[in-house]
Structures are given as C-alpha cells and as structure tokens.
Amino acid sequence: MNTKPKTVFRPKLFDKKVALVTGGGTGIGFAIATELSLAGATVWISGRSEEKLDDAEKRHFKETGLRLLTQPCDIRNATDVDALTSEVLTKSGSIDILINNAGGQFPCSAEELSNKGFMAVVNLNLLGTFSMCREVFNKYMSTHGGSIANITLGMNNGMPLMAHSGAARAGVENMTKTLSQEWIASGVRINCVRPGIIYTESGFDNYKGLGDDVLNKIVRSIPAKRLGTAEEVASAAVFLSSDGARYITGQSLAVCGGQSFTHLAIFEQEDKVGLIPYGALPLKARL
Ligand SMILES: CCCCCCCCCCC/C=C/C(=O)SCCNC(=O)CCNC(=O)[C@H](O)C(C)(C)COP(=O)(O)OP(=O)(O)OC[C@H]1O[C@@H](n2cnc3c(N)ncnc32)[C@H](O)[C@@H]1OP(=O)(O)O
Ligand SMILES: NC(=O)C1=CN([C@@H]2O[C@H](COP(=O)(O)OP(=O)(O)OC[C@H]3O[C@@H](n4cnc5c(N)ncnc54)[C@H](OP(=O)(O)O)[C@@H]3O)[C@@H](O)[C@H]2O)C=CC1
C-alpha cells in the first residue's frame, strides 16, 4: 500500500512540466523532487553518486508509486553539466523548472582554510550553480521561459567556520538578482530559498564532529525552538517554482523558524537563559 507523503500543492499543478533537481537523491533535494513529482511534474534528479540516485528512485516509487528519472552529474564539471542538460532535453523535451540544490561545505576555521579548500567550496556552491543556470538558460529557457530556485544557506550575517561557504552563498544570492534582471525578458524567473538549520540525515553526518552541545545551543536560539524539516524547505522551493509566484523574481525566501542563530546566540549564566546578539559573545564561546 502506498502511504503518499503529505503535500499542500494540488496534484496536477505541474502537469506536462519537466523539473531538474541537483542533489535530488538525498535530504532537501529529495523532498523537493517528491513535492514536484506529487504535483504532476516529470522530475529528474542528479548528484555525483549513482547509488544515492538509484536508492532515491526506489524509495520514491515505494512511497508514491511515481517514477523519478536519474542522471549522475558533478556540477563542478562542465562536461557533466553539458551531458546532464542535454540528456534531460533529449529524453523529456524541456526543462521548465530548475532547482539548484546541490551544495555543501566542511566546517573549517579561516586560519586553517587553504586556498584549495576555499575554492573547492566556491566551485561547488557558486560556479556549479552558475554553470547549471547558464546551460539551462542557453539550451532551453531563453526561448521557452521557466523558473529557477537556488538553495543557499541562511548566513547573511556571517557564520564561524563557514567563510568559504558564506562567500559562495552570498555570491549565489547576488548572482541571482543579476540573472533575474537579465532573464526576465525571456520569461525566466530566478529566486533563492535560504534555509536555516534543517535536519537531514545526510547533511548532518558532516557536522557530527561539532557535537550535541552545539546543536542544542542552536536549537534553543531558534525562535521556533526546533530545527526545520526538508519538507518545509521543499514547500518554499515549489511555491517559487509555481505560477503562484509569477511576479516574484530576484528574491530570497528564508525558511528558518524566525531569526536564526547567526544573529542571536543563547546566553546562559547562573540559571539565566536568554538571547543576545551573536557578536557580543566572547570569541571562544561562539560556535
Ligand atoms: C551534531 C550536529 C551539529 C550541527 C551543527 C550545525 C552547524 C552548521 C550547519 C550548517 C547547515 C548547513 C548544512 C549543509 O550545508 S548540509 C549539506 C551537507 N553536505 C555537505 O556539506 C557536503 C560535504 N562536503 C563535501 O562534499 C566536500 O567537503 C566538498 C564537496 C565541499 C569538497 O570536496 P572535494 O572533493 O572538492 O574536496 P577535497 O576533499 O578534494 O578537498 C579539497 C581541499 O579542501 C580542503 N579540505 C577538505 N576537507 C577539509 C576539512 N574538513 N577541513 C579543512 N580543509 C578541508 C583541503 O585543502 C583539500 O585539499 P587537500 O586535499 O590538498 O588537503
Ligand atoms: N541541512 C541544512 O541544515 C541546510 C542545508 N542547506 C543546503 O541545502 C542543500 C541540501 O542540503 P541537505 O539536503 O541538507 O544535504 P545533503 O548532503 O543531503 O545534500 C547535498 C546533495 O548535493 C549533492 N552534491 C554534493 N556535491 C555535489 C556536486 N559536486 N555535484 C552534484 N551534486 C552534488 C549530494 O549528492 P552526491 O554526494 O551524490 O553528489 C547530495 O545529494 C545544500 O546545498 C546545503 O548546503 C542550506 C542550509 C541548511
């Protein structure tokens, strides 16, 4: 028996539309692919690992009775990006919705971060996102229109251990504004979704080393007092991809449960607990 995931979108919202979700095999990307698929789109997912994509395809079919199409692609590799976009267009005929969700980083203090490490993260989050946008625009959207949603990370006030990623994500947000201006005449809308801290099994594996204490502090500093879910980010991305958002372009939508921990920090002293501006904490007490 299929126990279909819940969705707030209507079943045929994206009838005859083709969507491509990078990093769609896990976490937030998989939740977005699921929402788009339940809303009637033909959905392609990509990522570096063929195994993750196959697992996702099987899980999606088991949960929904619907198919996903898969193609491995490292978005930092121009040949891969060319092959992926050509394959989707050859097999499905259009790319109406592009979700640039693939991304990530490793936590590292600025003093220990090498140029190679900095560029690895910039190439993934900024250059990879740009080349996906450009290829899809040049090959399809420039003549047919469409919508693009870039998944970034809510750290516009900065975040310790994330100098590389913060710079890349800020780059994506600004690039998005420029592309929205250049491409609106072609009927292309492009926006960002800026998640706060979202629980995904795959994503959190990378941060285990920071420890439960850090995680607990983060949760207490979020006004909603909980982490977000992948489905909550998916709702925002799918709304921005829909006709309901037809007058929205060049914007960034935060999905963060209120003011995020990058602005406010938990303050604990002699049984008193409160929130203070993050910058007011002594350096070593920060994340
Ligand atoms: C208990 C939980 C507490 C939770 C607390 C949460 C706090 C913040 C959470 C923020 C929320 C964000 C969530 C997410 O973004 S979820 C996404 C999750 N996925 C990822 O983050 C992806 C994981 N990372 C990667 O896939 C790779 O690291 C990456 C693609 C970014 C780079 O891989 P690549 O293969 O290109 O790089 P290399 O391994 O070849 O390394 C290249 C150089 O990079 C430097 N490097 C690499 N790793 C480190 C490291 N850990 N520390 C320092 N430097 C590093 C290094 O210079 C490499 O060069 P060398 O090989 O010559 O040394
Ligand atoms: N979880 C969170 O708290 C937050 C997450 N985000 C962002 O949301 C997005 C999804 O995160 P989340 O679902 O949590 O984490 P995941 O690790 O599950 O998602 C990252 C996805 O990106 C893919 N990916 C990584 N590198 C590449 C690459 N070079 N080319 C193509 N695909 C790649 C991965 O697949 P594969 O390894 O097979 O390539 C994976 O499917 C990321 O951009 C993340 O930084 C933003 C804010 C908060």
Automatic annotation (TrEMBL):
Role summary: Participates in chain elongation of fatty acids. Catalyzes the reduction of trans-2-enoyl-CoAs of varying chain lengths from 6:1 to 16:1, having maximum activity with 10:1 CoA. Has no 2,4-dienoyl-CoA reductase activity.
Source organism of this protein record: Triparma strigata
InterPro entries listed in its UniProt record: NAD(P)-bd_dom_sf, Peroxisomal_t2-enoyl-CoA_red, SDR_fam
Keywords (A to Z) from UniProt: Fatty acid biosynthesis, Fatty acid metabolism, Lipid biosynthesis, Lipid metabolism, NADP, Oxidoreductase, Peroxisome, Phosphoprotein
A GO term, aspect molecular function: trans-2-enoyl-CoA reductase (NADPH) activity
Subunit: Interacts with PEX5, probably required to target it into peroxisomes.
Pathway connected to this protein: Lipid metabolism
Catalysed reactions listed for this entry: (2E)-octenoyl-CoA + NADPH + H(+) = octanoyl-CoA + NADP(+); (2E)-decenoyl-CoA + NADPH + H(+) = decanoyl-CoA + NADP(+); a (2E)-enoyl-CoA + NADPH + H(+) = a 2,3-saturated acyl-CoA + NADP(+); (2E)-dodecenoyl-CoA + NADPH + H(+) = dodecanoyl-CoA + NADP(+)
A Gene Ontology biological process term: phytol metabolic process
Localization (cell): Peroxisome
Designated name of the protein: Peroxisomal trans-2-enoyl-CoA reductase
Enzyme Commission number(s) from the entry: 1.3.1.38
